[in-house]
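Section 3.1: Structural characterization of target chains.
Under the original work plan, the team committed to producing a structural model for every single-chain target entering the pipeline before any wet-lab resources were allocated. The record below documents one such target. The sequence was received from the expression subgroup and is listed exactly as submitted; it comprises 656 residues.
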Amino acid sequence: MSNTRNLSNLLDSNGDVKATHLDNAPTPTKSEIEGLGIAASSLTGALPAISGANLTGILTAVTLDSPSISGTLSVDSGSNVTHTIGNWSEELNYTITPTNCTVGSINASGEFIVTHTSGVPSYTIKATTDNLGLDDSSLVTKNLVVKLTAPTISSPADTPVTTNVVYTVTSTDSGDDKIILDMGTSNFTYQSVDVGSGSKVGNTVEVTGFTTGNPAITVQFTALGTYASVKAKSTNIAGTYGDSNYSSSDSIVCYEQLSAPSLNAPADSDDATAVTYTISSIDSNATKVIFDAQSSNFTYGSVGSGSGSKVGNTVEITGWSGTSVTVTLTYTTAATYTNRAKVTNTADATYTDSAWSSSDSIIISASYAFQGSSYGFDAGGYQSQYTIDRFSLSSSGNSTDWADLSYSSQYDSGTSSGSHGYNSGSSSDDITAIVQKFAFTSQTNSTSHCDLASSSCWSGGGHNNENYGWDSTGWWNCTQIDRYSFTSTSTATDWGDTTTAGGYSSGASSSTHGYRVGGNTSNDGPGSTTIDRFSMSSSGDATDVGDLSGTQAFGCCCTSSTTHGIKHGGWSSWGSSYSNIMERFSFASSANGVDWGDLTVGRVFVAPHSGVDYGFVSSGKGGNNVIDRHSYSSSGNATDWGDLSVGRRCATGHHY
């Protein structure tokens, strides 16, 4: 007791201290109580109720955490999936009970493989321990669904933008009731489906209600581009089956076709003249223009802008400016060509080639060449004043009678167009102005074509280009040069004069000029050595451009290559010996003649024929019926090529 108290108040009637007044007294222990002689069995009576709130620190049984499982819950039929125990511990054991599947062992990462065997697969799993004194975890059940088999999709052709595209999705599993066509883009509009119903959902089209058949889904892409991830999958709305894998992806290009250009129609031409085409209305998105001749028989020349090159049968053009471009080319073979053009874009596949332009047809004829490639013709002459003989320029042999002249002819000048031979000047020994012509391709007699401007000049040189013939001088006191048209019957016109008079002269022709060679300076000679030249493009007098090496040019003749003239035979004066000498002179510059070889026999009043690679001479006094051939490219003696049907002299020579 810690305070002094009134004793009478502390004691009861028996003289004992009242218990209510005991403070600061320790609670007796069991042994202290038993030491007082009080037995535990003596403690009887109901104990007071104990509040559960006052019961703390009491231990209960501990249960393991349930396994935390991750991994897909859908599996392909007969296939497998991997599941993972997220809270896996190597101190625990795991009991797995599979249904319609097998379960492999759990690896050190908590992974195990579930393999579907039949029906609807599932398994249960719990964690256990034998040495931690903990209760098993609660049982975890995993129900899997079998995935639907993936469908297949069609692969439609590339198409212009905003054009219907049909994808057919072929379902391969009866358990699906929804098809999802994933376009990989929202740049499309849904149009229709042929079975069931469909709607656009984001980047997809969802189709349901296709109880039979494989839905054909029509869409339109709304933007240019390559769409390389179009795919489809099957689903089951109720979830009885898992979604299938996606089908393989289809790639489609939605393009814009470039507009076709236009192509002009140039005039017909020949195989030596450049032709220019204009390609217009070129699409602004084009990067290349293709001109197609549909033949490789041309040489590329140039383009109006940008750069061009020949590629097979075409010319490809890039880098041009504006909406049109020109291309120039030269056809190399006579034919009819059908040309066309298109444009393309080589940088962006979403622009496809345009259609071809309308075709242009152009006729290319063989260009004129002075030289003949097929036949030589020997016309008229003394002793055979009407006969026209023809012989081959490509194979040796005798000539044949081709046709007749309508007018007796000797001492004429001869020219050749692309289709006819022309004889101008004398008829027999009478000086006339008649120009008659005969055909190279049909055996018909000659007809009168026109008249020379003068009837007093005869036995002069003959010269020609594609459209005109020239008759230069003739007779020893004449210097006049006449020109007549091959296409008109109008009388010839005075074209100019030679530097000297000279009968029995000969003529050579380049592509631009006529050459009057030799002749006589008086009735009986001597022969002239002068080589005169005059222009074929403008009238005017000739100029002296060279000399022959000797005077044996009275009654000679000349053949012409593309670069040179070659003089044959002749004599120095009337009655002298016949010359067999050939001399060559250049067309490119003023130059004298040089020795080129000898004829097989000396002759005078000879007929010339110019081939492509060889020159030919026929008839002539002293030679009569012999045809000789000589080379243009190398000097050397002529060889015997054949014989005329009738020997003659003072005839005219032609070639075709």
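The two ends are 165 Å apart (CA to CA).
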